[in-house]
Design goal:
alpha/beta; eight-stranded parallel β-barrel; 15 helices; about 15% strand; globular; hydrolase; Glyco_hydro_1_beta-glucosidase; cellulose degradation; GH_1_N_CS
Length: about 475
């Protein structure tokens, strides 16, 4: 197994051929990971504020109380974004900052921050792209049952209406949820993300209520927008599932992985139904989706765009390492097979060709226009003696995945944009501040931002591409 990062390549910026003139270039962040000001101006605790205080839950006992101090440094950060030459900035709103406790009237001070952010972006010619929910559920709603409880979906739709009323006159691009798989499975089944629960039944109920929340919020946003421009979507973390061999066991393992990771979300979102084979797999574990009349119609609200967060594809086997086709629980084995591929500091395989395959598959099976709303890599960056941050591994990662988007478009995939993750190093959830995904380095002691070489490459590549297509 190759634990080294992608081979070092010195890449010169060059125009990316094969993209339309209106292709979107962006960077992305999320509220809890960068904002800080966790107890200022009326913000109440989220599930991540609580989870970070659980001993052993987060690397080094770290938390987002200060993070990148974006709440106080926002104008400086927007200037930095503008200097990268991107046309779009994807960021998330903090639900407990806008609607403390997850219900009731809006918090004017919290909304004012986002109004100022949007105004700063417009002033620099940058399109704001809002994500309503990037995992920071108000703790009071978790105390009332969290996403496994149906009421949370209803509260989310109300929150969406509050946010749109304040910002809808100046923001056209709205994403409801970021990565509901992570919210449900990492948070409620595996316990490694907030709120740290470990119950697959709860997680599956959370899946349905997250999707229902999306559908109800989508309806509320469209009603509020009326005839005003609105591009509405959801963002999913998606990958590929490849069988290790052509055996029936390995193909079945891929079916199960694809069912729980992709089709459980996209089939109801686009086709208005849950996949029958996944329902059967869950029934074998005595788990049932809590669907009520009208839910699937709400979930299948039309999507203008599908946000795709891609980090890796995976190889699967249907037999355990000891050769057994079933695990200790008596269920069929679905095992990730490690490959001898370059890896990131997250120990994730680097698989750009599988991004092409994914995008072509999404076009074939779901035919919704896509935007890469997150793609990037953590590496162990080192600051050079002159203060620069040479990160050829990250530059190569970005270049290879942008090339993968071009290849997907050449095969008919309607991909309309690429947003690098992340704008800056930040709080990386259960990894604390140990993993750095940013194309901009943050010195957490001084909060000084430094463009890494990858940021300069991205900036110059965007400029040359625009000049080439003008």
């Amino acid at each position: 197994m190759n634990l080294a990062p992608t081979p070092q390549r010195l890449l010169r910026p060059a125009p990316v051929r094969g993209l339309p003139a209106d292709f979107r270039w962006g960077v992305a962040t999320s509220s809890y990971q960068i904002e800080g000001a966790a107890a200022e101006d009326g913000r109440t605790p989220s599930i991540w504020d609580t989870f970070c205080r659980v001993p052993g839950a987060v690397e080094g006992g770290e938390h987002g109380d200060v993070a990148c101090d974006h709440y106080h440094r926002m104008p400086e950060d927007v200037e930095l974004i503008a200097g990268l030459g991107v046309d779009t900035y994807r960021f998330s709103l903090a639900w407990p900052r806008i609607q403390p406790g997850g219900r009731g009237p809006a918090n004017a001070k919290g909304l004012d921050f986002y109004k100022r952010l949007v105004d700063e972006l417009h002033g620099r010619g940058i399109t704001p792209w809002i994500t309503l929910y990037h995992w920071d559920l108000p703790q009071e709603l978790e105390d009332a049952g969290g996403w496994p409880a149906r009421d949370t979906a209803l509260r989310f739709a109300e929150y969406a209406s509050v946010a749109y009323e304040a910002l809808g006159d100046r923001v056209e691009h709205w994403t409801t949820l970021n990565e509901p798989w992570c919210s449900a499975m990492l948070g409620y089944a595996h316990g490694v993300h907030a709120p740290g629960r470990r119950d697959l039944g709860d997680a599956v109920h959370a899946v349905h209520h997250l999707l229902l929340g999306h559908g109800l919020a989508a309806g509320a946003l469209r009603d509020a927008a009326g005839s005003n421009p609105l591009e509405l979507g959801i963002t999913l973390n998606l990958g590929t599932a490849t069988p290790e061999t052509g055996s029936e066991a390995d193909r079945e393992a891929c079916r199960r992985a694809d069912g729980m990771g992709t089709r459980l979300y996209l089939d109801p979102l686009v086709h208005g139904r849950y996949p029958e084979d996944v329902i059967a797999d869950l029934a074998a574990q005595h788990i049932e989706l809590p669907v009520r009349e009208g839910d699937l119609t709400a979930i299948a609200a039309p999507l203008d765009v599908l946000g795709v967060n891609f980090y890796r594809g995976m190889l699967f086997s249907g037999v355990a390492e000891d050769g057994s086709p079933t695990g200790a629980d008596g269920l069929p084995v679905t095992r990730v097979v490690e490959r001898d591929l370059p890896r990131t500091a997250m120990d994730w395989e680097i698989t750009p060709a599988e991004l092409t395959d994914l995008l072509v598959r999404l076009q074939r099976d779901y035919a919704v226009p896509t935007v890469i709303t997150e793609n990037g890599a953590a590496f162990d960056d080192t600051v050079a003696a002159d203060g620069s941050v040479p990160d050829a591994d990250r530059t190569a990662y970005l270049a290879d995945h942008i090339d993968a988007v071009v290849a997907a478009r050449a095969r008919g995939a309607d991909v309309r944009g690429y947003f690098a993750w992340s704008l800056m190093d930040n709080f990386e959830w259960a990894y604390g501040y140990d993993k750095r995904f940013g194309i901009v380095r943050v010195d957490y002691d001084t909060q000084v931002r430094t463009l890494k070489d990858s940021a300069k490459w991205y900036r110059d590549t965007i400029r040359l591409t625009r000049d080439d297509t003008a």
